[in-house]
Amino acid sequence: MFVGLDLGTSGLRALLIDENGRPVGSVQSPYQTSHPHVGWSEQDPALWVRACEDVFAQLVSDFAVQLSELEGIGISGHMHGAVLLDENQQILRECILWNDTRSHVQAAELDGISGVRELSGNIVFPGFTAPKLKWVADNEPEIFARTKTVLLPKDYLRFWLTGELRSEMSDAAGTSWLDVGARQWSETLIAASGVDSEMLPALVEGSSPAGSLRSELLTKWGIAGDVVVAGGAADNAAAACGAGILGEGQGFVSLGTSGVILAGRDGYAPKPERAVHTFCHAVPNRWYQMGVTLAATDSLNWLSGLVGQTPKELTDALGVDLSTPTSISFLPYLSGERTPHNDSAIRGAFLGLDIAHSNLDLTQAVLQGVSFSLRESLDALRATGAQMPSLLAMGGGTKSEYWVQMLATTLNTPIDVPEQGDFGAALGAARLAICAATGADAKSVMTSPTIARTITPNKELVAAYDAAYQKFQQIYPAVKAVQ
């Protein structure tokens, strides 16, 4: 048996699978995020530990026999967070999360240093880890002075499970400290941000062992033998492992809290000037690239809260058949934007509102704005040479048939909808555990899901959506000029 842990922004999920990759059971435990100031987003790592204790208690209660045969654990986690530990490995402050934008000044400073983009393969975004540490040094010098170790979120959870301080390539690639092409920490990048290299843990590949489960936890959870804990993966890399997306020609579109278009790559082909992320994959000698819009289902959830209808009620009201583009333009920049603008300060907007417009029109506009933002990501990815003849649908937003039709038509790319089942980050983490514990080849373990149906672009509406997209692209600079 193997467990995949998915450390999300809003909760921890545990997926128990057998040696053939078949799901046996799934449990989860929620937690909260704090926002003490505008642009701040933090979590207490103790919440992750309590959630981990909770999900394993549930697994013991529901699947005691199966769990006793556990051989491996893999962990997926949200990227870029900064967990600061003192010399006694105690937490110094709450973790600054991926969607925290307070370090925009420090990010711009680091991004302007010659050679930083070239080595890291990426723009230094405010959400990345290195500018967070520079912000702490500038604003909380007493905490920075006491910091002896910096861990990424899922690496802290693995530290609690194993007692070992480790990180792995796919997560480390989002720090601005990793030479992403060489897959190793860069002394040049580390020095640029004012961090001591001794603060950073040793690196392993995501599919390799990174420790063993502590003996007291083996006893507590009734596990018979040793349990290998894998290096694991950043959330999107884990999702790619769960979906069987490892190399060229493969990709997915995800409508989660944020929106992502991800392309598997056989080689290293960065293009930071387009605000495309180029990261190491969780398996050796592979990379992936992605474009990100920060508020995808977040935009729909925001509208839902305003109008007092659930997201499903809003999307169901649109019907089944895709309609022509609405004349309302929506910029989904409720938390700033990544690809292609790299702008943490820009904020969202509705344009073209009329007194006759209804909730239905606003819903159409929100789905359309997010879809257009993802089109910008796809265009940026294709500029790197990535080619994806089709995309796999992932994330909660793809449960809306209407939204998937809109995406296929906006992107002018077929979208494959998999059969219902577990194929996301938790499964990817469990698959990495199989590789780490058994030495199995990643290709044989990380297979693609069965496709239920393929949504093709609506040929009658492709031109109309393309015209609306061209208009959408003109709005950002105009809004930026007056905000």
UniProtKB/TrEMBL annotation:
Keywords: ATP-binding, Carbohydrate metabolism, Kinase, Nucleotide-binding, Transferase, Xylose metabolism. The active site is at 235 (proton acceptor). Its EC number is 2.7.1.17. It is an enzyme of class 2 (transferase). It catalyses: D-xylulose + ATP = D-xylulose 5-phosphate + ADP + H(+). It comes from the Bacteria. The record marks 6 as: Important for activity. Residues 1-242 form the Carbohydrate kinase FGGY N-terminal domain. Substrate binds at residues 79-80. It holds the Pfam family FGGY_C. InterPro entries: ATPase_NBD, Carb_kinase_FGGY, Carb_kinase_FGGY_CS, FGGY_C, FGGY_Carb_Kinase, FGGY_N, Xylulokinase. Residues 252-437 form the Carbohydrate kinase FGGY C-terminal domain. Coiled coil: none annotated. Catalyzes the phosphorylation of D-xylulose to D-xylulose 5-phosphate. Belongs to the FGGY kinase family. PANTHER family: SUGAR KINASE, XYLULOSE KINASE. This is Xylulose kinase. It comes from Maritalea porphyrae. The gene is xylB.
